[in-house]
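Need tokens for this chain, all 430 residues.
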Amino acid sequence: MERILLLLFSFIVEAIVFGLYSFRLFFSAYSLKRTTLSIALAHSFLFLISLGGINWLNTIAYFGCSILLLTILFKVQTSTALFHSTILTAIMGISELTLLVFMNKYDPSFLTESSMSLFFYTIFSKLFFFIIIYLLTHIFKKNKDTASNPADYFLVAIPAASIFIIFVFLSICKVPYYSGTINILIVIGTILLLGINLLTFGLQQYNQKKNKEFTELQLLLQKETDSVEYYKMLLTQNENQSILIHDIKNHLHSIALLNNENENEKITAYIHQLLHSSDLKEFSKVCDHSMLNAILCRYQRKCSEEQISFYADIRNNTLQQINENDLTTLFGNLLDNALEAAISVLDAFIELTVQRKENASLILITLINSCRNIPIYTPNKKLLTTKSDTKKHGFGMKSIQKIVLKYHGDLETYFDEKTATFHTIITLKI
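Here are the structure tokens for all 430 residues:
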């Protein structure tokens, strides 16, 4: 009865440890109640299997159950689930092996006899297991990147080999009164196993972080490239408009010829065609920089469609030293964020001013816009995207920060609750 109670305690702790590990590192696919209940039921099943007393079967069952739980209940790919299940199994085995070595040293008979030693072995091995997992999950944050990582399939070989070595060590420990030298070697081996598995875990987390950063960088570069190409096309279109307006004399000449021939119907049709041509629409000039002007004109039209007041004051010869690609990225993302924040706000407005501080060789960019929602900041004062799909959003501010860093500048943002306006102040060194 005593062994059954200790066994039950072990699986309760293991269920808690698994829940702690999973909830801290991954995002649940279901509600907290449903996920917790599933973990509890799975470990109840494992408890029933353990009553048979077959160690290798218990290990396989725990390993397989962990993979299923991670794959089904959490937003985790198969490779990631395989790696973390192996890590959990290996660390659990190491924690038991560590206590087994020390307990065998002082009470070799505790495995075959019901004693307080068995009680302490169970309690402290699970406590050791809990502490290691707690430290791991405390150090590493949740991983939002659920993309499959092929490196996990290779890294899983290390904890898998550790599990085999643990079984070898356990077999040695079951030999009565093994020598003190073997005991020392097992202790050293156990410590090395623990260190190697912790290092492997850290390496896997590092690889996932770098893969995520690489993916984000690729998306940022793609977005910047698309933006630049768009505005180059827009600039070409504006140039074509200018050419067409310049050639208006030719159109007037043609109309005059038709008038001389009394072709009134043709004249009417010709004029109607010209008046409704999109190419003859007025092209606004907001600033003297052609690329930036194309950008601002686009957002001016967007604001007009959304009934948002748009004001821009860009001083002449202010941004000539800034790369066109950087200008496109910077102002495109700034105005994208401002427009999104101002939509649906009554009497909304966007005000953009850019001026140059001659004495300090600085460019000062100030953007004030209406804001319908109070921005959310992280503890380190970084803006968080309010969109549900965080994997595909939040890159705009990162792009802005990238440009600011490139020009050794500074970025400040704050929300004025009295006026319900969001303020962005950027300084760039040139």
